[in-house]
Design brief:
This protein is mainly beta. It folds into 2 domains: 55 residues, no CATH class; 87 residues, no CATH class. It has 1 helix and 14 strands; from the N terminus they run αββββββββββββββ.
Length: 164
């Protein structure tokens, strides 16, 4: 009889334990492939004329803008206004880019095969996925496989255990 009473007394005296346990597991894999891109800015045609003690005979002209050709230029004709006096004359022309007949390009498998080449052109090649891949198994082990150029692969597993 003493044993059941002793057990009952011991269980009544025991203090309950309180503990909060939190366990979090977060995992992710991010795979990306860069896209191809191009930015082309056309160089404009420009003309400038200045002078003193000169008389304009025929004005310089810019040609007609047509697809596939640059803007043409015809220089002006000038004469000295007062013979024997000092004179100055300056005429300049900058030929701009041709006007393309087609203003679009085609992207095939991340590659732009033909790009317009203008006064300012910046092009970036697209990435090649190749064997790019990634996975996380149930045990949290990462497996990342490199791809071709222009690819990124990031994998992470975060394990958090909080006991209060």
């Amino acid at each position: 009889m003493k044993k059941p009473v002793l057990l009952l007394t011991a269980s009544l005296l025991a203090v309950p334990v309180q503990a909060d346990i939190t366990h979090k597991i977060q995992s992710s894999v991010s795979l990306s492939v860069d896209g191809a891109g191009s930015v082309a800015i056309r160089q404009p045609s420009s003309m400038a004329v200045s002078g003193s003690n000169v008389t304009l005979g025929t004005a310089p002209t810019l040609g007609t803008l047509t697809p596939g050709t640059a803007l043409g230029y015809t220089p002006g004709a000038y004469s000295i206004t007062t013979a024997g006096d000092a004179f100055s004359y300056s005429e300049s022309y900058t030929g701009g880019d041709n006007t393309p007949a087609v203003l679009s390009t085609t992207v095939t498998a991340g590659v732009v095969s033909a790009l317009p080449i203008f006064g300012s052109t910046t092009s970036t090649s697209g990435g090649v996925a190749g064997t790019l891949g990634g996975s996380i198994d149930t045990g949290g082990a990462l497996s990342i496989t490199a791809g071709g150029s222009g690819t990124q692969a990031v994998g992470q597993v975060i394990t958090e255990l909080t006991i209060r």
